[in-house]
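Notebook B, p. 112. Complex prediction, attempt 2.
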Amino acid sequence: MKGGPAEERAPRLIALSFLVSALGSAGLGIVYLAGGHTQAEGLMVGIAFGGLAFGLVAWSKYLMPNGPFVEERDSLSSEDHEREKVAADFARGGRQIGRRRFLGWSLAAAMGALGVAMLFPVRSLGSRPGRDLFETAWADGIRLVTSDGEPVRADELAVGTLLSVFPEGRTNDADAQAVLVRLRIDRRTGGRPGAQAPEDLVAYSKICTHAGCLVGLYDPRSQNLLCPCHQGAFDAADGARPIAGPVTRRLPELPLRVDGQGFLRAAGDFPEPVGVGFWNRGRS
Amino acid sequence: MIARRVVRWLDDRLAAAPFAHTTLNRVFPDHFSFLLGEVALYCFIVLLATGTFLAMFFEPSVSEVVYQGSYEPLRGVTMSRAYASVLDISFEVRLGLLIRQMHHWASLLFAGSILLHLARIFFTGAFRRPREINWLVGVGLLVLGLFNGWAGYLLPGDTLHGTGLRLGYAIALSVPVIGPWLVFLLFGGEYQSPQILSRLFVAHVYIVPLMILGLISVHMAILWRQKHTQFRGPGRTQTNVVGEKMWPAYAAKAGGLFFAVVAVVGLLGGLVQISPVWLYLPDTPAAVTSPAQPDWYFGWLDGALRVFPAWEIQAFGFEIPAVFFPGVLLPTLSVLLLVMWPFLEARFSKDTGPHHLLERPRDRPLRSAIGVGLITFYGVLLAAAGNDVYARTFSVPVLQVTNVFRVLTLVLPVVIGFATFRMLRSLRDREISRMSEGAVAVAGGAGSDD
Amino acid sequence: MRGWCRVVFCRGLLYPVWAWFALSSLLLASSPAHAGTATTNQSPQQAAQAPQPYLRDCAWCHGPAGEGTNRGPTLRDVGAASADFNLRTGRMPIDSADEPPRRSEPAYSAGEIEQMVAFIGSLGSGPEIPSIDPQRGDLGLGAELYRDNCAACHSVTGVGGAVPQGNIAPTLVGVSSLDVAEAMLIGGEGTFTGSMPVFGPDVFDDHEFHSVLRYVEYLQSPEHRGGAPLGRTGPVGEGMVLLGMALPALLLFMFWAGSRK
């Protein structure tokens, strides 16, 4: 839009815009020197850059030549004879290889071998999965401890309490972590392995079998363990069987026993791999 | 005067004059929707600049340290060096919190502008020959951008974003046959492997940005070579480009847009809190928080994990875990669909000629309807990722909310896609009949009523 | 029957009438054995006389001596802490046993509450009202304990969350330290929804208990120096700001900057 009141107003507004921007930049400097304040800093950045933004676009839109200009567009497809030339170029060079078949094959073999050799640095990136996904640090006799290393007594947990437990000495162990729950004995429904631990104490792997989030919520009334990520639910009174959400498999149960001093110990490792599913999980 | 001397100096060394002449006079169609790609580019520049600043302070180390900084609630708490360095950036470094928040907001905006840009390309048919290569490059940029966002937001090591790492691990592990190997090579071992943080840091700061820079260069080079598309209009043909000249009008406008993007990111970075990791607390192997959502551009994946039913395939001791279907299959099929689209459409529409003029959505009702249906599909999944937040806010059982979303995921895309198809087709038909009536009138026949 | 029961028996206008009938019939129906049971089941404290507000509003569901009925659970052994919590936070009285109790304005004056708390506390041996001083706790320890025990349900930022199976872990923002302490001691059974575990002396020692209280007190008004906290909704709120404000703002700017042809 050229001429008329817009053209007269525009330069003044644009200059004002740039001035405001400069003030914003100065403001940023002042805020910085005064010790900084995130909201003020952000505001100053917004003003400094915003002033420039408005000024430049207004200048372009109202004062600069906008055309419309026209430029010709060539066809992208080249002439046939030029394409033929390229094909001939390749063929000429290719005949070299064609004539020396044996050299060509040995080159291919060398490149292939090199390609395979280049994969070995990738192999160095990690260990072979081996038994790691099938086993945890738990074993018969290892004491249960809380995250601060305190051993757990079998009789100290009130009904309806949930405790996060680890193998003694490994309170940072991501795949051995478990939750210990004292159930209401009259609500227990499922059977359980091992007869040495109190009937109403159960420990399950804390790693949700859906996507690996931690099952840290417990509802004492329904005796359900709950996973916050995708709302999976497990029945703690029935072997942590999945009862809601996208979960397909129960949480592995840690066999427990009570030692001579009344402390809780594991009676072995989890009977199945903990955590999320993987291809050969069923073939341990 | 100075310009002349500069031009001469450069031209003596680079034969730059003809190139500069062509460039300065290059014509760009300036429809507002063509600016979306630029916005994405500018977001990336902001990400590079702010990210470089952050990388000067961030320590990608899982070694533990006892915090003694100025954020009192965590003083004396043991945390990773990584988390402590983010606290330092937020509380000790001047402008640190602003730049950190700008970086995170820019990543959200980056994803948003890429998706809007993709939508514009899709609905106007700009991916058709000769621009299929650029479409593929764009899809690559989308995937890399999303991945880098994920890798970036879990670097601080707080409880909320630690969930993202667990999910990544579970999804990678669920891949049939190669899952365990893939995970052990990428992570360097089982879940708690200490190498994963520095690997993600290297990927986030070096590998992926380099790839993105490379692809952006290819993207722009192809655009330069092929010249921009344009909408139909007076004076516009398949063999010309109508618009503004690069210098000065378009350059000024592009520069202004860049400053506008930085302004928006700056305002957000200072005024709206994002990812307050000091409140989320340092992640430990046993820490849980709820609700836990990823950044918005992965909401569709999280929503899919929530609404997808508990289906697992087991046979002969092998299994395909439940997470595989929404976590691996859905994204793979989505990317495949994107990649194949130009070729599928060319095959089905039997249209293999070059196109430099754009279509309006109503010109291709079927394509537009499919596009709208797909947007609805991912949109519903995105909304589903907040199912526990809705349950808490409206005091409704979360299972009910989930079931509602299951139904919506299946029904709404079809309904809306179908409605879009009907609406666009009737719009187009009405237009065609109006044009033909007008043509008849021009040719001297009976006048039309409108 | 439930809805009818609710309308006829529990609506405000009819309260005094029905309470009078209930009281008279209970008094008439009470036998020596009944009264005897009420007194012989006392643990250490002597059973106090039920205060008037209790008999008027609570006895119908919980029994005149807190023994429970088929409409409400027994109050024996719930402890003074439970009574104090439920009455001060307005969770009790509720109109119907079907609805979970929700925080609201207390229905009684402080004096009436004190009377009822004393009475219910005397009925058995549940947790006493704790005497607390959050400043005794350590903020850093509290943060870690909160993260490991509370964040899963109440959210790491304290705004609460949906607990699957239809329950809600309420927000802790706007909740006094005494409320938090009592809720921890009485657990779910005391707050009736049953979802909250008990965090008593077998889970936290005194220092840990107060540390958690101190951190929850901090969460009432935590550090938000990054800007508007968006209701502490995390990525959900941030996504809404992006899609609802930032992108539209940029689109408007582009609309102005570019052409519309």
